[in-house]
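Retry 2 of 3 after timeout on previous attempt. Resubmitting structure tokens to design endpoint.
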């Protein structure tokens, strides 16, 4: 824990020293007083820090229907009180989202004004020890001042990005000008160079911030393990939330604690926002063999490393392995003793999919550039056969990529069987059919989120609802999503991981009706149209040369 704290301090200090050097250089070029520039940056950080939680509170209430006035279960309230007392922290403000998808997060400024938000799915799918472990993880973020730390550090990339944009835009009209054109050109060159350096530092600092965020997650995991003295409880919770592997079923007849506000028609299903979960429903343990198989993707698939590099949280499997170390420290059996070995390399699949991702774009850009070059050199010569050929080739690869991402032969699957697959990514999908209950939204409680979470007999997984137009999606989120939640459905789509497991839906059957999604057919039609256009241009160019 001390090592992680020291690393965080050194990282933040280094980033701010680098920022100070760049700002001093910029202010010197534009003849801005250094103190004035630093003061502006400091004021912006302070304003964001002060008003951020209030803005988030409003957002949570308006768009997530968070209830901050509900009766916390006795076991959880006692646990939070004891933990806060031990760490000299005020009791946090607890919020509840009435959504069956499991989610928990915290926000605020410092530990004494922390807000911890829990969804109904946390109570439905986790047992008491797992719930306490999850809450301890969130308290760990508060006691470690992660809200303050990440607010401060996330400003650094933004400042570098703003500086880069300002420098590059102003390079054609620098404030410090001279009548000497050579001096002016040199000045513009220096400004552009510094702007590009700022842009490079922005990209690097973004990855440093992501790395720091992942480090803080390990830090909070350790806090949970040491506070509860049960690391396996957090591991089990991570399996259910991160992998979706659980045999828990929501007990619709169980009683719940209710909030202080009794005027919302608690007995009326239309006022379900006033109802809050108090304890876990009857719960089953996920198969340990299946969990190990699900972990293989995190630990073996090459895409997992790339996705983690661009993520705020470590891969679930890595967190479970770290928690296993604390189990051994407490002389307890680890939740998972992972001993499987990688049987083959997944680098070739990774290389092929990266190629399919980037080559169509490269070919289209090359075609456009060549077309304008040819026209500029000799507008009367039909040499645009080369860019036309490149465009046709790019379109052909785009078709290959499209069908690679959308294989057919849909077969019946379960969440468990899908999670055991290693050769799957955002590019390589598994066509599947799945039956289960829609228990909540993909972003629990968010009225603008059109996605679902489905629960079958083996676990839960995110369902991606995507129509050709984003506006179409949002209309469905506002007026169509809620009526499907709680229904038994049959879905057809493509299972992917990036690293969050999810299914791109092609269609789903709910309440006896089939709801179709048209992104697949629209993508195919658009490619056919452009393919025909480019092919006609190629044929005309070839005929002109004959």
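Retry 2 succeeded. Sequence:
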């Amino acid at each position: 824990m001390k090592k992680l704290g020291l690393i965080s301090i050194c990282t933040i200090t280094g980033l701010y020293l680098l920022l100070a050097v760049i700002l001093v250089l910029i202010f010197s070029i534009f003849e801005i007083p250094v103190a004035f520039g630093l003061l502006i940056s400091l004021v912006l950080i302070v304003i964001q820090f002060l008003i951020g939680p209030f803005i988030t509170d409003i957002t949570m209430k308006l768009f997530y229907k968070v209830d901050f006035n509900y009766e916390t279960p006795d076991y959880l309230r006692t646990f939070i009180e004891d933990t806060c007392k031990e760490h000299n922290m005020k009791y946090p403000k607890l919020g509840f989202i009435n959504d069956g998808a499991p989610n928990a997060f915290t926000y605020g400024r410092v530990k004494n004004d922390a807000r911890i938000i829990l969804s109904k799915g946390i109570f439905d799918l986790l047992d008491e020890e797992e719930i306490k472990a999850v809450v301890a993880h969130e308290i760990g973020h508060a006691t470690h001042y992660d809200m303050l730390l990440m607010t401060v550090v996330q400003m650094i990339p933004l400042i570098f990005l703003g500086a880069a944009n300002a420098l590059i835009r102003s390079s054609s009209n620098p404030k410090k000008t001279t009548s000497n054109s050579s001096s002016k050109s040199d000045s513009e060159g220096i400004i552009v160079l510094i702007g590009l350096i700022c842009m490079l530092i922005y990209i690097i600092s973004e990855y440093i911030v992501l790395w720091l965020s992942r480090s803080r997650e390990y830090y909070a995991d350790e806090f949970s393990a040491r506070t509860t003295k049960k690391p396996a409880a957090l591991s089990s919770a991570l399996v259910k939330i991160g992998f979706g592997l659980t045999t828990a079923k929501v007990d619709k007849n169980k009683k719940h604690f209710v909030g202080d506000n009794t005027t919302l028609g608690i007995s009326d299903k239309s006022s379900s926002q006033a109802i809050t979960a108090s304890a876990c429903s009857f719960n089953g343990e996920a198969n340990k063999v299946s969990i190990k198989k699900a972990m293989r993707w995190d630990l073996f698939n090459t895409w997992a490393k790339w996705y983690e590099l661009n993520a705020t949280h470590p891969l679930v499997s890595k967190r479970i392995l770290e928690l296993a170390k604390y189990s051994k420290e407490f002389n307890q059996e680890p939740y998972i003793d992972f001993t499987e070995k990688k049987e083959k390399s997944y680098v070739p699949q990774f290389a092929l999919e990266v190629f399919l991702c980037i080559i169509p774009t490269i070919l289209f850009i090359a075609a456009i550039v060549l077309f304008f070059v040819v026209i500029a050199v000799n507008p009367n010569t039909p040499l645009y056969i080369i860019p036309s050929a490149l465009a046709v080739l790019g379109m052909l690869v785009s078709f290959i990529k499209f069908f690679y991402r959308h294989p057919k032969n849909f077969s019946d699957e379960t969440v468990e069987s899908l999670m055991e697959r290693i050769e799957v990514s955002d590019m390589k999908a598994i066509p599947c059919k799945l039956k289960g209950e829609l228990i909540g939204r993909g972003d629990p409680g968010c009225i603008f989120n059109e996605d679902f979470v489905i629960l079958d007999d083996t676990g839960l997984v995110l369902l991606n609802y995507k129509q050709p137009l984003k506006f179409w999606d949002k209309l469905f989120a506002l007026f169509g999503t809620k009526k499907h939640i709680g229904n038994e459905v049959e879905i057809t789509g493509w299972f992917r991981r990036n690293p969050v497991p999810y299914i791109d839906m092609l269609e789903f059957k709910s309440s006896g009706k089939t709801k179709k999604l048209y992104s697949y057919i629209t993508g195919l039609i658009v490619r056919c149209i452009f393919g025909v256009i480019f092919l006609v241009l190629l044929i005309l160019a070839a005929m002109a040369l004959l």
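Attempt log closed. The longest strand covers residues 430-441.
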